Amino acid sequence: MSEVPKRWKGACENGPDFSPSLCNNKLIGARSFSKGLEAAGIKISTKDDFDSPRDWFGHGTHTSSTAAGNYVLGASHFGYAKGTARGVAPRAHVAMYKVLWATDSEQSAASDVLAGMDQAISDGVDIMSLSLGFESLPYFNDVIAIASLSAIEKGIVVVCAAGNDGAYSSIHNGAPWITTVGAGTLDRTFTATLTLDNGLTVEGISYFPESVYITDAPLYYGKDNANKAICNYGALDHKEVKGKVVLCDNTTETDVEGQKEEVQRAGGYAGIFMTDLSLLDPEDFSIPAIIVPFATGALIREYATQDNTTRVKTLSFVHTKLGTKPSPEVAYFSSRGPDPVTPGILKPDVLAPGVDVLAAVAPNKPCMRVNNYDLVTDYELYSGTSMAAPHVAGVAALIKAVHREWSPAAIRSAIMTTAYSTGKNSQTTILNQWSGLPATPSDFGAGHINPNKAMNPGLIYDMDLQDYIEFLCGLGYNAKQMKAVIRRSHWYCSSKPADLNYPSFMAIFNGTDSPKAKTFSRVVTNVGDETSTYRAYLEVPKGMRITVEPSTLVFTSKNQEQGFSLSVEVDSDAPKVIYGYLGWTDQYTTSYQAL
């Protein structure tokens, strides 16, 4: 690691179970903020927390190592995903700001989050990654929006998790100066392999943390009792299932977690469960269990009902499978747009890996329980938009290292316009994990991040603080509300604010709009070759018409700006949600913007 930058003003604080001597050239800052908690009359737990920067839960450890963790050989989740772990920007320095506590409420946490962000700005960070969020509020009441605008003014990129609500219009941290990140799946699954006595071999999902090898075990299926067949609560008989691999049929009366608990209660040797979308977390696999799709489960059930002496020939665990198709998909839990505060700005901005992400955790905190034993590990699989955001923060750090002069808006633009919306190994639009149907930009924003391409986007859509002030002026905020957001007493609003120079386009029409049409204006900056010619490329679905003027942009120098207008018109009978793409392409690069 390189030496601590001379411009760094941060510190490593002393506290219970944490000493400043733990900091080094990687961890160069560690602070905690709890005055909001104290003001609310809430004490810091001595059982479930540390009154210091030290991480109790492992969440902050996981996210920071994802963004900037160094190389670690042989990392794995109990053998799953085994290999060399590293963060996206492994040579970046890290400063940690602990702002949430085990006993927190949303109200008490707000002032501590604001204090932590302000301190990070004062310390001189380059990138701020927040894997947390509050209820969506107007910007003048949103502490993350307020502090992040102050950060943007200082040239600091702010990256935030979009939230895990999974529903329509459930975005968190959607202010247009924040890079808002949704979660996508990876092309990697963790499996068990099952072979029946009739020769049928199948793979299924499993995270059981022990490399057990089950051989020649009886297969139990309660075919003569509907409740036993579905492993309903209290239905299984210990005498019937002891020492047997239990097959549980798919049902709407209970879920896989309930079935697993019933097999465990009754003393089954292992379990086979059926679902096309498993919602179990790795820590839920407290017994040897394999989850198979409905179609595969039907084949196992057919065998189990045809013979009275059905057996499992082998059942093995701790397998990691690469090349899973299709991928990426939008994770079922990832919050969707439109943004509830400003629906006219497309959010999330991008998608990043957020499902089964392997990263460091607190190594002395039990992560699950198996056979009455608590298990611990120093690397664990987590899922959430909390895991997606530090991926983008790491990419932003890499871009910042190459392009020190770029603004936060320029860095976000580079990430957005080089993202892809077509599955890497499916050549179809990124799918919705929950439904299996094509997702839309309201789910994945500009698309899934493509870090290498983001280093050289060709064109960028830049903005500065005044652009965001003009945006806020357009929201009709009064003087008190404006002061709360921009944290200053004087500002200027033009008489006719221009469009926010955002690298995506969003038009919302109601049933009475006629015609359903809108024109946007944008300015792009050439950051590619000095002499470049870019031509507009449009992907337009039926029911939508798009025109770009001019359709060719000619640049004669680097950092030269060119403006264009984009007009969109939508037929009255078009689908409720319709989208297309604008691409600017030269002989080397293509930048895409969602419409």
Describe it for me?
By secondary structure, this protein is of the alpha/beta class. The chain is built from 14 helices and 29 strands. The strands form nine sheets. It has a seven-stranded mixed sheet, sandwiched between helices. Helix 2 runs parallel beside helix 9 and helix 3 (106-123) runs parallel beside helix 4. The longest helix has 18 residues, at 106-123. The model has no long low-confidence stretch (mean pLDDT 95).
Short descriptors:
alpha/beta; 14 helices; 29 strands; 595 residues
Average pLDDT works out at 95
Number of contiguous helices: 14
Shape: globular
User: Which range best describes the helical content: under 10%, 10-25%, 25-40%, 40-55%, 55-70% or over 70%?
Assistant: 10-25%
The proportion of residues in beta strands is 25-35%
Structural class: alpha/beta
Low-confidence stretches: none
End-to-end Cα distance: 42 Å
The main β sheet shows up as: 7 strands, mixed
Secondary structure topology:
Elements lengths: L26 E6 L2 H5 L19 H10 L3 E6 L2 E6 L8 E5 L7 H18 L3 E4 L12 H11 L3 E5 L17 E6 L3 E9 L4 E5 L7 E8 L5 H4 L8 H4 L3 E3 L8 H11 L3 E5 L14 E4 L1 H13 L4 E12 L6 E2 L19 E4 L3 E4 L7 E3 L2 E3 L3 E4 L2 H18 L5 H10 L13 E2 L8 H4 L6 H4 L4 E2 L4 H9 L5 H8 L29 E11 L5 E8 L4 E6 L2 E4 L5 E10 L10 E5 L4 E5 L1
Parallel strand pairs: 1-4, 5-6, 6-7, 7-16, 10-11, 11-12, 12-13, 15-21
Antiparallel strand pairs: 2-3, 8-9, 8-14, 10-14, 17-20, 18-19, 22-23, 23-27, 24-26, 24-28, 25-27, 28-29
Helix pairs in contact: 2-9, 3-4
